[in-house]
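Sample intake sheet
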Amino acid sequence: MDRYDTVYRGGTGEYTEKKSRFIAEVYPVVSEEEAFAHLEEVKKRYWDARHHCWAYVIGRNPASERMSDDGEPAGTAGKPILEVIRGRNVTDVFVVVTRYFGGTLLGTGGLVRAYTAASAAALSDTVIITRIFGFKLVIHTDYTGLGKIQYLIARRDLYILDTVYTDRVDIFLLVPEEEESAFTKEVLEGTNGQAAIDKAGTCWFARTGNGVEVWEE
């Protein structure tokens, strides 16, 4: 099943412990260079902060992972941030947590708790989508077969891009790769072979709050 979760819109979160502030920000990224560009921008914005700890996960099969404690005790900042990302099973994401020291040492346990909580808060504020690999299909049918096809589309909760009505009906829709074969068989059987289906290409797509977004192959 070729699909994965990623960031559609980044979020922010904050955690305070013993007057130390932990400000977390999430960014969608597709390269280390892009992640470091965000890091530099954060450092400039919070120039007076003591630490800017971060982690990223980029790509799939296998993913590239890196993290930094940025001066905090080893394993108390970057690793907790990375573990939060892993726990959400999301990729192409960069999380940076800026710390303003409050004057009281938190200890290793306190630091791990704080960086974890700030990262989790930011990811909870983030819009995460599932990107799916699939096909753009065009179904050509007469009006007799339209009702059956609409039923099959609704049953699989497929996304219709457009419907054109002339002397026949052309339905443009998105179908996940793993469903395409079975769906095509259902349409042909359900219309006694009267419908025709063309593949208009492959793409990645994801449902968003505004409908669907498509990324061409």
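Comment: The chain has a mean pLDDT of 94. The helical segments are 32-45, 78-88, 107-124, 143-155, 177-190.
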